[in-house]
Amino acid sequence: MGKHGKKHKEALEKVDSDKSYPPNEAVSLAKQAADAKFDETVELHLRMGVDPRHADQQVRGVAMLPNGLGKAVRVLVFTQGEPEKIARDAGADYVGGDELVKKIEEGWLEFDVAIATPDMMPNIGKLGKVLGRRGLMPNPKSGTVAQTSDLPQVIADSRKGRVEFKLDKTAIIHLPVGKASFDDEKLLENIAAVVDAVVKARPSGAKGQFVKSISLTTSMGPGIKLDLAPTLSMTTA
After folding, report:
1. pTM higher than 0.70, yes or no?
2. Confidence at 15, pLDDT banded by 50, 70, 90
């Protein structure tokens, strides 16, 4: 492992693992600690007060990050016939039907978002295990199964910073919220959008405290606990 610089060490010393920080201070600390040779991803981790074993306590949804993720998003659309031209004209990187299914079965996965028109769902069912593990399987609940008329908007949203979230087996939601090179304000706006989307996705079976804790980190940085009250009160307005 490479040596970290003085700035990184100073940031680590500033992070008190027992303290909860207001969002603006946490973002500042996370950026100070991000001194890797690449532009580190900033991540949000939310521990939820639900039981993932129960169907009525599942948490999943979509957050639209106003400032994107800081990377080019490669969009694939499963469709056939006339919608293929609509998808290409809307800027999809890869468009097709059974030929794309076969290509993915053979191990190709050079895309970040997969969208499908409803008629293609039976054809791509066999890809469930491959795409599902990577969070790439088109799903009506996440808005990635779209009618032909909706394709341009769904493709545009995917490029802007559309991120899906889903509760894992340990009742935690992990989400990217941007890059360490982003201005503090842009990261805070993205964090607000994520928190807002997660809170609105509260399932019917959730009882008591829905979000138990939230932490912020970068790809190589320390985990920083966020002060829950001011973080949950953030808005996207």
Report:
1. yes
2. confident
What's the full length of the chain, in residues? 237
Residues 132-185 pLDDT 10s? 888 889 988 888 999 999 999 999 988 888 888 989 999 999 999 999 999 999
Alpha-carbon span 148 to 135, nearest angstrom: 22
Are residues 165 and 211 in contact, defined by beta-carbon separation less than 8 angstroms? no
Domains in the chain with CATH codes: 6-69+162-232 (3.30.190.20), 75-160 (3.40.50.790)
Query: Using CB atoms within 10 A of its CB, is residue 145 exposed (0-12), middle (13-18) or buried (19+)?
Result: buried
At 24, give phi and psi (nearest 5°): -65, -40
Instruction: Give 117's Cβ-side CA count (13 Å radius).
Output: 19
